[in-house]
Every structure is written in C-alpha cells, then in structure tokens.
Write a structure and sequence with these properties.
The protein is built from 9 helices and no strands. By secondary structure, the protein is mainly alpha-helical. It folds into 2 domains: 43 residues, Single alpha-helices involved in coiled-coils or other helix-helix interfaces; 119 residues, AhpD-like.
Amino acid sequence: MNDQPTALDLPMVDPLPGDTATYFEICAEKLGMVPNVLKAYSFDIVKLNAFTAMYNDLMLGESGLSKLEREMIAVVVSSINRCWYCQVAHGAAVRALSGDPALGEAMVMNWRMADLDSRQSAMLGFAEKVTEASARVSEADRQALRDQGFSDRDIWDIASVTGFFNMSNRMASAVAMQPNADYHAQAR
C-alpha cells in the first residue's frame, strides 16, 4: 500500500522546520495522527503555512458559528463536490463534535435527511447555493440567513468556510488526496 498522502511525488521537506515539526507533534497529540492534508502540503512550507493559517482562522478562530456548524458546512460542501478526503475527515469531525454518528452520516450522504433546525437548514442551504451557483446568490439569500438570526459577520463566515472548502476540495480531488485511515472509525 502506498503511504503517500497524494498521487503526486512531492515528498515532505526533510527535516521539517522546528515550528512545523512542533505543529505536527501537537496534531499527533490532539488528534492521534498528523492529517494527510498537512503531510500533502509539507513539500512546500510556505504553502503549508498559508493553508494552515487560513484553515485555523476559519475553523478554530472567533466566530458566531460554532465549531460544529463550521464542520457541517465543510461536510455539505465536500459532499456536493464529492471530495473523498474531506467527506471522510470532516464527517468524522461532525460525529465527534455532535456526539451523533447518524448526523455525520447524513451530512455526507444527504444533509436534508438530517435532524436539523431551521437555522442550520438555512445555513447549509446557503452553503449549497454558494457551492453550486455562487453568481446566483442574492440579497434575498442573505436576508433569509438574517431572518434565522445570523449576523452579517456570521454570513461572512458561512461564505468564507464555504469558499475555503470549495478550493480545498478541488485541490484534494485533483491530487487524489487520501484520508487518514483513522478517520473512518472515529466517533462511531
């Protein structure tokens, strides 16, 4: 079995710079593994740093959206885009954050079948529209989010997470990025 994180022959920088090695150690400690997406980007530390800075800001930074809501967006976008890596990795995150394995499965398979409230449905419907037809997003779409209690900053964050995962999905699919096997069994 090939242990490369992608179909490309782009080996990790060796040795990793100290900050990067420390970051990978923290990931291994907190997650029990270094995600393959990080290994994939580590052939170029500048690209890795840009990717992780944006990811960490959007997914872990201050926001009116919960971490679970941001992961739900990631899974819905990834499901629409059929991104194998992100469906597996972020599906595991939804299962872990929600404590509900069925929710994680529904997000991957068909988010409309999940037991969601009207706020979550509006958020995910917006993410779906941005993914499928961003030029068709209108003020009515933004107002529908406001009507569910989202602030304009929240709408920015929904759009940002959606946009990031559309880019990330395309990269992962283009290079055949493989999810870490550990994700499959997490939070089941």
